[in-house]
């Protein structure tokens, strides 16, 4: 009987010690919470995160009964604030230029927000990370660090596959690296994603350069095809001129006339205006429209380059009125 009493006494003592320990844990958790709040007020994000996480861990180890109302309130507040601290810390790091660390903190913010059901944080992080990556990659592009910029734009796309701006800027970097295939792929993807300004213009420029290069070798079929392709993306006066000149060489007279007249309409003060009028005269003459041909030849009678030919056409061959 004496041994049983002794055993009961030990059990009661242990229960008292355990209850007292639980009270101490709640007090310690409260102190940690307050330490976290103080660190946060001093913008000591690392210290705040450490304290709040320790407080949270301690509170979660307690039963609801042992936490009481105060403990439950602390637990709820700790879960709500931890993702916000990571978010704020990430923004501060981004402002200071520490991009990799910033993104790391932002991703933790999103993870903890999901874990603790904190609304708004995940959505903000989802938008913010691509923005930060895009700014960083754009800065690299402006600095002429082209391979690094391309790698940066690919990171944006990995986070946000439908970011057409990233594709456009990556295309610009590829153009500067003379990687035509890479540029075309990037600009084409940007267009597929709805970009309707820069991407078509950039694609048009690529094909205009091809067309101009083909003029030097008198490969008129290449001039024609690439100029047509350029104007499919973005109609330009240069594209129209190249289509017109190559069409004339390929005996596509109607197309030559339409394109060259479009060029003069867009560039009425063009320095090569007389050259274009001469080619129009040739095209109309080839079609048998002597009246139109005469009209253009007459405008060239005082041009030193075309005067002799124009006089012959007007006075002798076509006998223009």
What would you say this structure looks like, in words?
The chain has helices at 2-41, 45-60, 64-95, 99-115, 121-142, 146-159, 164-176, 180-192, 198-216, 220-233, 237-249, 253-266, 273-287, 290-298, 307-317. The protein is an all-alpha fold and 321 residues long. Among the domains are: 27-62 and 71-116, Serine Threonine Protein Phosphatase 5, Tetratricopeptide repeat (Alpha Horseshoe); 128-197, Alpha Horseshoe (Serine Threonine Protein Phosphatase 5, Tetratricopeptide repeat), CATH 1.25.40. α2 (45-60) runs antiparallel to α3 and α12 packs antiparallel against α13 (273-287). The radius of gyration is 38 Å and the shape is rod-shaped. The N and C termini lie far apart (143 Å).
Produce a short descriptive summary.
The protein is 82% helix and 0% strand. With 321 residues, it is mainly alpha-helical.
């Amino acid at each position: 009987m004496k041994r049983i009493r002794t055993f009961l006494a030990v059990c009661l003592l242990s229960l008292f010690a355990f209850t007292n320990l639980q009270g101490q844990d709640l007090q310690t958790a409260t102190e940690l919470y307050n330490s976290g709040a103080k660190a946060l007020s001093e913008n000591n994000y690392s210290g705040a995160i450490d304290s709040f996480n320790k407080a949270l861990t301690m509170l979660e180890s307690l039963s609801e009964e042992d936490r009481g109302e105060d403990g439950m309130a602390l637990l709820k507040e700790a879960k709500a604030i931890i993702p916000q601290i990571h978010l704020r810390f990430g923004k501060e790091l981004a402002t200071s230029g520490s991009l990799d660390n910033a993104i790391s903190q932002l991703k933790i913010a999103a993870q903890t927000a999901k874990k603790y059901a904190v609304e708004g944080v995940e959505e903000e992080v989802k938008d913010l990370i691509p923005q930060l990556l895009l700014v960083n990659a754009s800065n690299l592009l402006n600095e002429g660090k082209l391979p690094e910029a391309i790698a940066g734009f690919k990171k944006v796309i990995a986070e946000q596959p439908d970011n057409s701006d990233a594709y456009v800027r990556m295309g610009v970097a590829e153009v500067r690296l003379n990687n035509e295939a890479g540029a075309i792929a990037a600009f084409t993807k940007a267009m597929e994603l709805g970009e309707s300004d820069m991407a078509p213009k950039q694609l048009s420029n690529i094909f205009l350069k091809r067309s101009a290069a083909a003029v030097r070798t008198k490969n008129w079929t290449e001039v024609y095809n690439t100029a047509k392709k350029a104007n499919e993306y973005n109609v330009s006066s240069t594209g129209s001129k190249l289509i017109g000149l190559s069409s004339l060489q390929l005996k596509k007279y109607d197309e030559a006339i339409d394109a060259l007249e479009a060029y003069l309409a867009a560039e009425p003060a063009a320095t090569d205006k007389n050259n274009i009028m001469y080619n129009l005269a040739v095209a109309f003459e080839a079609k048998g429209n002597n009246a139109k041909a005469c009209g253009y030849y007459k405008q060239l009678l005082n041009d030193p380059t075309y005067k002799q030919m124009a006089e012959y056409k007007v006075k002798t061959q076509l006998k223009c009125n």
